[in-house]
Automatic annotation (TrEMBL):
Keyword ATP-binding: no
Annotated organism of origin: Spongiactinospora gelatinilytica
UniProt keyword Signal present: yes
Gene3D superfamilies associated with the record: Trypsin-like serine proteases
Name listed for the protein in its UniProt record: Serine protease
Biological processes annotated in GO: proteolysis
UniProt entry keywords in alphabetical sequence: Signal
Amino acid sequence: VWSGRGGAGSVGRTTGRVFLTMAGSDFVCSASTVRSASRDLVVTAGHCLKDGTGEWADNWIFVPGYRDGGGPYGSFTARRMFVPRQWSQRADDSHDVGMVALNRRGGRHVADVTGVQEIAFNARRGGAAHVFGFPADPPYDGRRLVYCAGRPRPDPHGQTHDQGLPCDMTAGASGGPWLSGFDPRTGRGTLTSVSSFKYTDDETVMYGPYLGAAAKDLYARAQRA
């Protein structure tokens, strides 16, 4: 469980739990605010927005700073959702990233309420990362922000262009930020991936997509929505 040094720091505010409905069933995910022109943008996993080639999510709500059943900053609803065409047309795990332009709450942009993390594309592979999220399946219950840390390695199965690192987080952590250059004192870093999936025969490694040209193009559209 993340407590930070002297408190949770920025990451405790910028990371939130997500509640959504897809194909009539309720799900939970994680997401993070990032710097954007609109000051309304969060980044998550593509499958937290759209079921691959299937349906889009409904009732999508972001609760920043979530802890023990609620958050001090209230909740923000989705205004527009964005996923790469590689995800929406082929459910390509190498592009399992999504972005959401949020509605304001009480006239305020989410970035002005919680602050933001930086975001980068085409980053150097293999750099150390801190991974954050709200895993909800046992042994976790989704009530606290959890983290893993390590140095990502390429997908050894060669099935994706993703990187993986040792992490015992469970379902509900999907979409949580991978922060490079993370400073535990401030809780700030640069988002370079999000939690995406685990192979069924290896529950010890979490994989996240590499944010390259497609993700950069997605961000260019989403941050001005």
